[in-house]
Design goal:
Helix content is about 45%, strand content about 15%. It is of the alpha/beta class.
């Protein structure tokens, strides 16, 4: 029989002086039989024929077994650095701030482990790994998950996602960290065109433009048809050409008025009055949207993976192993496109941000604008708050949900029949994130599971968990600056110039065609005259 920390074993031992009429109730447990530790015996009651059952006052197994008396348990953690030994872990993970190869939630869960260690009075001998999961072709499990599955550690000094197929490999003792990784960038006028912010047609949806075009075409047809009917019935109304009415409609929509004299006929005037009313309503909505956009804070900027790809942003990623695994293993077409267009092109010899870098290097580029950095959000917020001014903080934008989809699509793959659905979500909203909470874990059926769960619950009740979370999880800096007007750049009015250019090109082509037609007619008349 295996005696463990969570064993519920009671032995009744006779009291020598009682001649078999009295027995001591002894609680039997071991704080680490797998660590070759002794079995502990604690008397918690007595039973006798005369007095019955008598319990030791205020005896609690949790408190009695909770003192490990300096026992050294086996721990494991993830540190993506070279030549890290067990003696280096406490020094590395106890330093505040961000460090190369260490993500924020690793330091947070190390802080939780320190509270467990101090409360239960035990030491930890660490085993360091550079990744959370993996598998060789032979089936051998790699990373932190492999160590736990083989029961080579008693507790993980970091957290891990609780995928459904991992529930048989570890027990969860606490959940409090919400993983939110994504792109961080500063919105600039150059990005307005990337999301349609500077597009001449942006104030109206496509359906509004289509409906307006159909309505104006209908008005043009009705005007010409009405004039034709009136011209047939009376000689007082001139038969105005279709082009003239087209010019009148364009002039009305452009707030330039009608070129010719307004017809005295009531049907024509009603049609034109309806056109003016329509133009008044649409023009007010259009101008208010444009002016409101100029006077308000900058727009949203790229919000999906597709918009990130199409934007002029240069991308960089936190120099952590899972980013490299992401691009090496993913088969999602849009993520492959992101890699080929934004990550794979060489940056050697260019004064730009490296593809894989740390937070300290990335923040000055983010402040400059034109760059996006992918990391867990809370890792960069402190440096951003220290270096950005009030206006720059207001221009800070994040793409959290789309990037979480990037991460989870690799490490939490679904069935292949969902690939097209996932790809569609990534291109539109970037939303497919089914797992967000990180789990503080021990090996499956560990003898410490229940005790550590109770301790973590008590720490949460007295507020230590909340305090530790607030220290390690930095919130996004709050925008405290008023709105400011950004200058309109060429990208913001490019559509208007494009419309002007197309109009000038068409007018020139029509003029040349008219010239050719006129020359042809003159030559034809000349030949007819000679004949």
């Amino acid at each position: 029989m295996s005696v463990q920390m969570n064993s519920d074993i009671t032995v009744a031992e006779p009291v020598p002086e009682s001649n078999g009429t009295s027995f001591e109730l002894v609680d039997i447990y071991a704080k680490g039989r797998h660590l070759c530790r002794d079995v502990y015996r604690t008397v918690y009651g007595r039973w006798s024929y005369e007095g019955g059952l008598e319990m030791v006052a205020n005896y609690r197994r949790y408190y009695v077994r909770g003192n490990f008396n300096g026992l050294q348990v086996r721990g494991t953690t993830v540190i993506d650095q070279d030549n890290v030994t067990s003696q280096d872990v406490d020094r590395i993970l106890s330093v505040p701030g961000t460090e190369q190869g260490i993500v924020s939630f690793v330091k947070y869960h190390y802080a939780l482990l320190v509270m467990l260690r101090d409360y239960h009075n035990f030491g930890v001998k660490y085993r360091v790994t550079r990744g959370w999961a993996g598998r060789l072709k032979s089936g051998y499990r790699l990373g932190l998950l492999g160590i736990l599955a083989r029961n080579e550690a008693d507790i993980a000094a970091t957290a891990i996602f609780q995928r459904i197929n991992r529930h048989a490999e570890f027990d969860i003792i606490h959940q409090s960290w919400e993983f939110s990784a994504g792109f961080i960038y500063r919105i600039t006028p150059q990005l307005s065109g990337a999301t349609g912010g500077g597009n001449f047609f942006t104030p109206f949806e496509d359906s509004v433009w289509i409906a307006s075009l159909i309505t104006l075409t209908a008005i043009l047809v009705i005007l010409k048809f009405s004039v034709f009917i009136i011209f047939k019935s009376t000689s007082n109304e001139p038969n105005t050409s279709l082009i003239s009415y087209l010019v009148d409609i364009v002039g009305t929509v452009s707030q330039q008025g009608i070129a010719g004299r307004v017809s005295a006929r009531m049907p024509i005037r009603i049609i034109l009055f309806s056109l003016l009313t329509l133009n008044l309503v649409l023009f007010n909505y259009y101008t208010s949207s444009v002016v409101g956009g100029l006077l308000s804070s900058p727009g949203k900027g790229p919000q999906t993976i597709r918009e990130i790809i199409d934007s002029p942003l240069k991308l960089a990623f936190r120099d952590i192993g899972y980013h490299k695994i992401l691009f090496r293993e993913t088969q999602v077409p849009i993520i492959r496109e992101l890699y080929e267009k934004k990550v794979q092109p060489s940056r050697e010899g260019k004064h730009t941000i490296p593809v894989y870098t740390d937070v300290i290097t990335a923040v000055p580029y983010l402040q400059r604008g034109g760059y996006a950095f992918h990391c867990e959000m809370t890792e960069a917020f402190q440096d951003i708050a220290d270096q950005f001014d009030a206006n720059e903080i207001c221009e800070l934008r994040t793409v959290i949900r789309a990037c979480s989809a990037l991460f989870n699509r690799v490490f939490f793959p679904l069935s292949l029949r969902y690939t097209e659905h996932i790809n569609l979500l990534l291109q539109t909203t970037g939303l497919f994130n089914d797992l967000r909470l990180m789990s503080f874990v021990v090996p499956k059926r560990s003898m410490y599971t229940e005790m550590f769960r109770i301790t973590m619950m008590r720490l949460q009740e007295i507020g230590l968990i909340k305090r530790t979370l607030k220290i390690h999880r930095i919130e996004k800096p709050i925008c405290q600056s008023g709105g400011r007007v950004l200058p309109v750049e060429v990208s913001g009015v490019s559509t208007a110039f494009a419309v002007l250019g197309v109009g000038m090109f068409l007018s020139t082509m029509i003029m040349l065609l008219e010239k050719l037609h006129w020359n042809y007619m003159m030559k034809r008349q000349y030949r007819n005259f000679l004949n």
